[in-house]
Amino acid sequence: MVYNFVNGGAGINALAKQAGADVVVVDMGVAADLSDLVASGKIIDKKIGSGTNNIAKGPAMSIAAATRAVEAGIEIAKDLGKTVDVFGTGDMGIGNTTPSTAIAAVITGKPVEELTGRGTGLDDEQLAHKQQVIRDILKRNQPDPKNGLEVLAQVGGFEIGGIAGLILGAASLKKPIVVDGFISSAGALIAIAIEPFARDYIVCAHRSMEPGHRAMQEKLGCRPLLDLNLRLGEGTGAALAMNIVEAAVAVLTEVATFEEAAVAGANK
User: Fold this and answer.
1) What is the DSSP string of 170-208?
2) 3-state SS class at 110
3) How far apart are CA 213 and CA 202, in angstroms?
4) CA–CA separation, 66 vs 71, rounded Å?
5) CATH number, span 55-247
6) Distance CA 34, CA 3 (A)
7) I need a surface site. Which of 57, 101, 134, 201 has the fewest CB within 10 A?
């Protein structure tokens, strides 16, 4: 999938092109050697480790690694902020609806069975197993919902930490960031747990098929622009929503007010 992003063959490549957006690929912790892509400048190397630890057996990562993941996202925002006006988030991860659901359960306080979805297509038995795994994970790790870095370290992922950092970095630059789907919203929850002011710069792109996404967005205090039953990820929803954001800017800056257009006088 990383090579597909780089070669322009993924869904996000097509939709980003249509929206006039650039796709920037970051290796936060892919469990593979991508040094050839790094050397050629096709991806940004922020690899924290070769995949996280098994959260069913203990913390996903150390607090130090969680901090590095968030800092990496902040650094990317600061670097790209010189030329980028609007940021968008996206992800490519294996099995990352599970840590995202765990994060949602911790920070929203909602029950696991209400938040857990089928991911890439689980049947009823597999879904029940996934729910039990997440309950066991939370019982074992017990992160503090008020400590965003601890939640990330206990049950998160490197890509989720990077997204959280990107949101914090964009907010520090006073630039809006269009948050994609379920995984990206988990990063947003981590971001606002670390620094609540970041909420003011978040635009929720859409509501995904994952049942926990509504609870996440309610916690973020953000209504999604689109509700199209999307499930692909990759930042595709964010790319679609950027068209709506551009339209809003056009209306605000190009449409004359009634007074300017002399449409009508003041009502008496």
Assistant:
1) HHHTT--EEE-SHHHHHHHHHHHHH-GGGGGGEEE-EEE
2) coil
3) 15
4) 9
5) 3.40.50.10210
6) 9
7) 57
- Model-wide pTM > 0.85: yes
Q: Which long-range contacts (CB under 8 A, 24 or more apart) does 36-39 make?
A: 37/2, 37/3, 37/6
Task: Give, in order, the Cα–Cα distances in Å from 103 to each of 96, 110, 157, 185, 206.
Answer: 11, 11, 10, 10, 19
Listed by start position, the domains of the chain span 55-247
Dihedral (CA of 152, 102, 34, 163) sign: negative
Q: How many CA atoms lie within 13 A of 143 on its CB side?
A: 34
213 CB neighbour count, 10 Å cutoff:
24
- Report the distance separating Cα 165 and Cα 190, nearest Å: 9
Identify the residue whose tokens are 């006006």.
85
Q: Are 224 and 193 in contact (CB under 8 A)?
A: no
Residues forming the active site = 234
